[in-house]
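Researcher: Structure prediction, please.
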Amino acid sequence: MPETNAPIKTKLTAESGKPASTSGLWRLSEWLGIALYGALIIQYFLLWTNPGPDDGARIATLTMMVIFEFVLGHSGVFMSVFPRRIALFVFVPFYGLFALALNATLPGNAIMFLYCGVILMRMRFIFSNPTEDAKLKALGVSIISVFLFMICIIGFSAASDVLPKFGLTPAYLQTIDFKNIASSSGDFTDAPHAAMAMGMTYFTLLAGFEFLIYGLLRKRKHRA
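Model: Predicted structure follows.
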């Protein structure tokens, strides 16, 4: 007769070697990140092509969000590499100061909400025990995001004069008094259409790389 008291093996995923329930949470967090990118892509596109008379603050916020993404990309690299105590007690408050500084230049608190959301996504490294494969994938995504940002910001800044303005014409920006709303100056605040184009392109490319790296469209087989 078979032994009835034999130890029961924890169900693991075939790819990661993590418990199935943990793997499911990680997969959910990966899809949540893609959903966030999708929402941003739509917002950048709509504000670029069809802004409304009351969208000045949103345009200023998403313009600054493009710049703030550079800070978030660096934070992802450091939080993936350093021990969790350093990530929690050093990098979280350190990058939080950048978030507060940028947030203070804009109406509302969208930058702080974004920072808190991204940090919550990355807390899974701080309060969990991810596999080396998961750490390498997250590190790879963070490094790619930094390189993508550098390429996009140089390219779209240089091409701002030839990019279509669509709804963000000089007449529209003057009508909503965008310079006073943005309360800052720079390549992107002076040409918000370039910031909208870059944001839409950057987050589209980043979402595509995450699909490939995390294999979100591949079925994951389980074994007992």
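Model: The chain is about 70% helix and 0% strand.
Researcher: Thanks, that helps.
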